[in-house]
Task: inverse folding
């Protein structure tokens, strides 16, 4: 049986987006507030880190290494967790220019992380090598480092979101109804992968749907399929088969078309949508993940994609620090 540490504030609540639902005249839309897993963690990454930290401590780790974009929510959550546990955190961040001391990057510094910035090219082509080089440097200093992959997105991290399916099932009992679909932003793969794993493990009837906020759907379908095949190797009692039909790339549902200008880049229409949700629902979305995904969901509802659904649950994966302040805010 897999074990995990407990750091997040759980379960996260489910709220109805009443005004948005009414304006769309389609299915009722609800939101699961994983942005409220804890103010320092504030998002989906901490659920994955709970599993990875159990493995890290089991290996005697006394230093954490990870990587991400300059405004990475995952890196900030790891830095916060390291500060909480008294473990040094080393971050390799992708940024060509000298960044402004804002948002998650500012918080990384406040939490005391040691930061190395590298070019976008090095990040794309040499990331694994650079992570291992840093680990070897720390080993030579007598430390026992533990490398956490980008976004904590691997087979083990998946279980943070397979757990969410169990959590949703319990909340559905209290609510007195079930959801026809669970929708989530997809940026590295293991959040959507974990939900798919949970659907299979716990026989969850609702559809699991991702909206990619980078790359394209095909890229994530293949990446998530590999993550799921790794995940099942951790299960020691009647695991789903690695070739389960739900794990085949073509059967992983990702709705493409809402990446916009690219990862971390926002258009005026997306900022208008963030403002609309803030003013009509009192909820802050982030411009990188949840803003694009929920905008995509509303556009698909308008197109009739979800005509057969009565209730949809959107998972808010956090990222609000990306609003403080955005460098690409349309003027």
Result:
């Amino acid at each position: 049986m897999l074990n995990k540490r407990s750091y997040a504030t759980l379960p996260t609540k489910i709220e109805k987006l009443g005004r948005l639902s009414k304006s769309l005249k389609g299915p009722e839309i609800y939101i699961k507030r994983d942005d409220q897993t804890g103010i320092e963690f504030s998002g989906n990454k901490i659920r994955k880190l709970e599993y990875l930290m159990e493995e890290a401590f089991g290996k005697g780790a006394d230093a954490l290494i990870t990587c991400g974009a300059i405004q990475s929510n995952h890196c900030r959550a790891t830095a916060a967790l390291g500060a909480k546990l008294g473990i040094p955190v080393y971050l390799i961040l992708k940024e060509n220019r000298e960044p402004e001391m804002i948002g998650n990057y500012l918080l990384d510094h406040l939490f005391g992380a040691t930061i190395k910035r590298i070019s976008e090219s090095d990040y794309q082509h040499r990331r694994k090598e650079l992570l291992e080089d840093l680990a070897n440097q720390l080993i030579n200093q007598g430390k026992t480092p533990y490398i956490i992959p980008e976004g904590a997105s691997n087979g083990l991290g998946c279980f943070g979101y397979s757990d969410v399916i169990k959590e949703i099932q319990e909340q559905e009992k209290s609510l007195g109804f079930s959801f026809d679909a669970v929708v989530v932003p997809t940026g590295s793969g293991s959040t959507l992968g974990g939900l798919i794993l949970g659907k299979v493990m716990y026989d969850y009837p609702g559809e699991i749907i991702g909206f990619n906020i980078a790359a394209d759907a095909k890229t994530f379908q293949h990446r998530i399929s590999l993550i799921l095949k790794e995940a099942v190797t951790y299960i020691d009692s009647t695991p789903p088969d690695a070739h389960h039909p739900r794990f085949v790339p073509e059967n992983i549902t990702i709705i493409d078309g809402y990446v916009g200008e690219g990862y971390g880049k926002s258009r005026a229409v997306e900022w208008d949508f963030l403002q609309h949700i803030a003013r009509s629902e009192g909820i802050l979305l982030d411009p990188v993940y949840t803003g694009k995904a929920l905008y995509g969901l509303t556009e698909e509802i308008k197109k009739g994609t979800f005509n057969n659904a009565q209730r949809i649950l959107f998972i808010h994966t956090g990222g609000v620090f990306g609003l403080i302040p955005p460098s690409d805010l349309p003027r």
User: Anything to note?
Assistant: The domain at 14-43+154-323 is CATH 3.40.50.1100 (Rossmann fold). Residues 100 and 106 are 8 Å apart (CA to CA). The mean pLDDT is 95.
